[in-house]
Every structure is written in C-alpha cells, then in structure tokens.
Design brief:
Length: 318
C-alpha cells in the first residue's frame, strides 16, 4: 500500500494543501507557481500505482484532479479572452504558455490515428472542447486539413469564446462547428463521426468517465475510432486514468505513454461491428483481437519507442 511515507506522495500532499487553500484558481503568480511545481513533481516517469494508494491519498487525488480541471478551465478562459481581443486570434496562439505541448500532443495523436485509420476522416467530434479548443485547431490547421470538426461542450460561454477564435479564419470558420450540449444527450448523431476524441477532463471520476465511454460505445458507428486521454504513473495525480477494462464495446488498439512534457497518455480504440449478440448486449466486455495489445512509452526527444506486451486478461480482472 502506497501512503504518506512515499516522498512523491508527501510532496503531492503538501502541494494539494497549498492549492486547496487558495482563494481563487484564476491565473495568478501563486496559482501558476503551485501548479507548475505540481506538474514538475508528477512529470518524471514513476512506478507508482495510484490504485494502491491508501484511502486518504485516494481522496486527495480525486480532489486534486478536480482542482486541476477547474484551474485548467480558468487558464483557458483567460487566454481565450486575450486571444479574442486580436483581429486574427489564430495568428497569436503562441502566447498561450502550453501551446508547444499541444503541438506535440496533436502531432502524436495524428501519428497514432494514421497508424490505425486507412482514410482521412471526413467528420471528427471532440468532446469537451472548452473555450480554447487547441487540439481541434491544431489538427484542423496542420494535419486534417479537409476534415470538419464538431466540438461539443456543455458550457455555452466556452463555446462562444471558442467560436470567436475561429470566426475570422476563412478556412476554419467553415470546418469547425460548436455544439452546446451534454454529450450524454447526443445519440444517433454520434454515428456520423469517423473519429471521436474524448478530452481528459470529461468525466473527472471513474464512474462518470465509464458512463460517457459506455454511451459512446452505444451510439458511435461500428468501426469508428475513439481517442481518449489518460494518465500514467504519477501523472495520474493530475488526470483521470482510463484502463482497457473501461472500454466495453471497443477493441483497444494501442496505449501511448509520453515521457516528455506532454502529460497525457493517449488511448485509441475501435468500436466493434454490430452483431445480433451486440444488439441484445450493446456493451459487453472489452474485446481484443489478440491476447496482447501494444503499449508504447513515447519520447520524441530521442525517438525511441520502448515496447512492452501486456496480458489483457490480467488487465481485465485487475
């Protein structure tokens, strides 16, 4: 059982106490300093297994993920407002302090998508796009330059800010669409998308995340791809973890764990074809074509992929 004696856990706990005592999580000197310390603490590769944390630290982790989500949303709103004050907002994206991370993450996700998608997707959905939809913008601008992007967010102000960013761009304004709705209320429209991206902070606890995944499994088109963001090692103090066993109704293709400053892991899965059995039991268990699937530790700094095989049966029962 991993508990308070672990130096990493001690440091994370100390930072949690400081962050949770802040009057506001809006961008400020103190907020920026504490979250930078938290990210730097959790970034190095770590063997820690968050499922084995003691109850108190599990509770801290859950609260910390929510605090990170709130702070991230406020940071994006802050910079979306600044960007929106420019005549051509997309010409100034590099003022966002983590823009380079989004460039790397989007390149990684595009490379993964290319590996498992034979055709350029015509329509893509991004669930949880927020006020600064950088993934959609970067993918649409540099990688999927003919694809239409449908961005879903439950917050009308977030969508309004995001729409303002692309409205002056003659290309993206024609290919990026914004829908203000809870994705759990979107049903048969989901079958229109070749790829669905699920943001890391949609479903900030395990049960909520699994409910969203089950909903997508029910309504996405057979053969469509689902790309999710997860976390690995100590980075799971920052974002929720998606395990293979959470992806009922999908074939898990690969899981990629970056080891650089890109925090999120990337999971790609394919919706299973419909059968008579799947009509009666639309979710079922997670299925895999072989006993093993691929996990990559991705480090773009040295272009080395460390491959390891993972026994699926062991994952499913864990």
């Amino acid at each position: 059982m991993v508990c308070e004696k672990d130096p990493l856990v001690q440091k994370v706990s100390e930072l949690y106490e400081q962050i949770s005592s802040l009057e506001s999580l809006k961008p400020s000197k103190d907020v920026n300093r504490l979250f930078t310390q938290l990210v730097l603490t959790c970034m190095p590769p770590s063997p820690i297994d968050v499922t084995k944390l003691c109850k108190r630290i599990q509770e801290i982790r859950s609260k910390l993920i929510r605090l990170c989500g709130e702070a991230e949303g406020l940071l994006e709103s802050h910079f979306s407002t600044i960007l929106g004050s420019h005549e051509n907002p997309l010409d100034h994206l590099n003022i966002f302090p983590y823009y380079s991370n989004y460039l790397k993450l989007s390149q990684l996700e595009f490379n993964i998508l290319n590996k498992h998608c034979s055709n350029v997707p015509s329509k893509v959905a991004f669930v949880g796009s927020g006020p600064l939809p950088l993934t959609s913008i970067v993918l649409a601008s540099f990688h999927l330059t003919t694809t239409s992007f449908h961005n879903y967010d439950i917050d009308p102000s977030a969508n309004s800010m995001a729409l303002h960013l692309v409205s002056s761009d003659p290309d993206l304004s024609e290919r990026m669409f914004f829908h203000t709705t809870d994705i759990m209320d979107v049903t048969y429209d989901l079958k229109d998308y070749d790829v669905v991206f699920l943001a890391a902070l949609v479903g900030m606890d395990k049960d909520a995340k699994v409910r969203v995944i089950d909903h997508l499994a029910k309504y996405m088109a057979p053969g469509a791809l689902l790309m999710l963001r997860s976390a690995h090692g100590a980075r799971a103090f920052l974002y929720p973890v998606v395990n293979p066993c959470d992806l009922r109704g999908f074939e898990v293709l690969s899981i990629f764990h970056p080891t650089d400053e890109v925090i999120n892991s990337v999971v790609i899965a394919r919706k299973f074809p419909m059968t008579n059995n799947s009509v009666e039991h639309p979710l079922g268990r997670t299925k895999h074509p072989n006993k093993y699937f691929e996990i990559e530790m991705f480090n773009p700094l040295n272009h080395v992929n460390l491959m390891e095989e993972l026994d699926i049966e062991e994952q499913l029962i864990s």
